[in-house]
Amino acid sequence: MRHRLLPGGLRIRLVAAFALVAALAALSTGALTFREARTGILQQSQDTVIRLVRNRIDTLAWGLTFPPTQQDLAALAANVAEADPTRQWRVMATYRGLNATSAPQDPFTELTPALRTAATTHTPTVFQRVTVAGRSDLVVGMPITFASADHKRAATGLTVFVVVPQTAEQAYVQALVSAAERATLPALVLAVLLALLAARGVLRPVRDLRQATRRIAEGRLDTRLAVQGSDELADLSHTFNETAAALEESVAELRRMETKARRFAADVSHELRTPLAAMSVVTDILDEDAAGLDPDTAAAVRLISQETANLARLVEDLMEISRFDAGAAALHLDDIDLAESVQRTLIARGWQNHVDTRLPEPAALRGRVDPRRLDVVVANLIANALRHGAPPVRLSLHADPRPARDGAHGTERWAVIEVQDTGPGIPENVLPHIFDRFYKSDTARTRTQGSGLGLAITAENVHLHGGTIRAANHPHGGAQFIVELPLPELREEERS
Questions:
Q1: Is the CB of residue 91 less than 8 Å from the CB of residue 81?
Q2: How crowded is residue 236: how many other Cβ atoms within 10 Å of its Cβ?
Q3: Same domain (yes/no): 385, 267
Q4: What is the DSSP annotation of 80-135?
Q5: What is the residue range of 283's domain?
Q6: Dihedral angle at the C-alpha atoms of 212, 217, 221, 224, nearest 10 degrees?
Q7: Last residue of a domain, one of 290, 325, 360
């Protein structure tokens, strides 16, 4: 199954990181540029105003008389205001308790007490930017001084204050803000595009690595990555190739060893069948004559006969497992009555009086299964319950209609076989291994002479039919095995 990119995926994180860096860079650059540009614009405006005012006052100062009258102050204010080509300056001249403005009745509210006090000191020029009713103004205070005989500047007490509107400067600053805002969006778009390109370059090796890992998980151990460049991703690809090669070699060696082990078990089992057949004939004869032997000899003969029979069963189980491993096990399906088949299994082994059965009516449950393998499944489960559990042992069989698999419409029939005993149950640590080969749990069950292959063969036969088998502990005690077998629909000729 292919995994979709989640909102928190690497691609999204890379794009977000690039966009964030671009945004921070754009904002930082814009802020610094704006600050420097704004400072430059205001400084240039301020220097221009101060230079014009100074030149104008220096020109007018030679015609001043002291002490100046109210009319002198009004004339001075009007003459200084004429220095502005835009005629937007507002000027106020003060001398001790007297003051006059270039515009009649001008309250000059922009002049703050702090600036007035600073302008009366020996500071050549003072200025302050103030905002009134949303409008920014530059207020310049310039005291008028005269050079004395010792070339020092002497204060006259006459001070000129000029209010210069910053309308043009505000427009320039606002234009800078608008330009920065317009530049931010393209910068972000460019950053996202660069992020996508970078993410594509970074994620392509990661995507190839993910696909290669998936192919390795699917068993295609010859998968390798193309190593390009010499960065960390190339080193990762090289490491992956080395790991894949080592894994392929290890798996190949394990498969060779497993094949040899299976072939050995099959060969040994096959070679043992002939001498075991002869031994079984001899033990059968000895069993018939055991009644005429002395007790010790008779016990030894019966022990040999029993162990020979156990060894023969082990060899047959090994041969069956070998056929499963080699893929030689095949189904020979036949239309049978499942309940009748189960009854035959019990009767053939003399278990009909030891097992409580709940079976459907004759011919009520028919299906296409392999009769021999169904016999093995039922026999192994009943034998396991009788050997390791406690009576009563219960066997039930019923049909279970289910929705069709593989997206098909309708329903399909399943046969469910349940075998339950009333013994001590299966320890929890044993349940995950109950169908493993040669696995025994002597701590929870009585010691037996079983091969440890019965349940493994049972599971293989169930899986060969396309069914499932599971083991559990019944809530009321005892072990419970549940087999589920699909029952294909009968063909028309079989129905007739």
A1: yes
A2: 15
A3: no
A4: HHTT-TTS--EEEEEETTEEEESSTT---TT--HHHHHHHTSS-S-EEEEEEETTE
A5: 232-325
A6: 10
A7: 325
User: What is the C-alpha separation between 1 and 217, in angstroms, rounded?
Assistant: 12
Domain assignment present for residue 448? The answer is yes
List, in sequence order, every residue forming a beta bridge with 93; answer none if it has no partner. Answer: 100, 160
Q: Is 292 helix (H, G, I), strand (E, B) or coil?
A: helix
Element (H or E) spanning 298, and its range? helix 295-325
CATH number of the domain residue 251 falls in: 1.10.287.130
DSSP line for 346-381 = HHHTT-TTTEEEE-PPTTSSEEEE-HHHHHHHHHHH
Judgement on whether residues 308 and 345 belong to the same structural domain of the protein: no
Quick check: is 260 in a domain? yes
Residues 267, 345 share a domain: no
Residues 273 and 408 in one domain: no
Cβ contact 435:442 at 8 Å: no
Helix (H, G, I), strand (E, B) or coil at 144: strand
- C-beta of residue 191 within 8 angstroms of C-beta of residue 18: yes
Within 8 A by CB and 6+ apart from 381, the residues are 417, 419, 458, 481, 483
Residue 228: DSSP 8-state: -
Tracing tokens 């005012």 back to the chain, one arrives at 53
Domain count, the chain: 3
pLDDT by residue for the chain (496 residues), tens only, comes to 444 444 456 667 766 776 677 767 767 776 777 677 767 777 777 788 778 888 887 778 777 777 888 888 888 888 888 888 777 888 888 888 888 888 888 888 888 888 888 877 766 788 888 777 777 788 888 888 776 555 566 677 788 888 888 777 667 777 777 777 777 777 777 777 777 777 777 677 777 878 888 888 888 888 888 887 777 777 888 888 888 888 888 888 877 877 776 676 666 666 666 776 777 777 777 777 666 677 777 778 778 777 777 777 776 777 777 777 777 778 888 999 999 999 999 999 899 889 999 999 988 899 899 999 999 999 999 998 888 888 889 999 998 887 776 656 667 889 999 999 988 888 888 888 888 877 766 544 444 455 678 888 889 989 988 999 999 998 888 899 999 999 876 554 444 4
Is the domain of 15 the same as that of 122?
Answer: yes
- Report if residue 426 sits inside a domain: yes
In a domain, 105, yes or no: yes
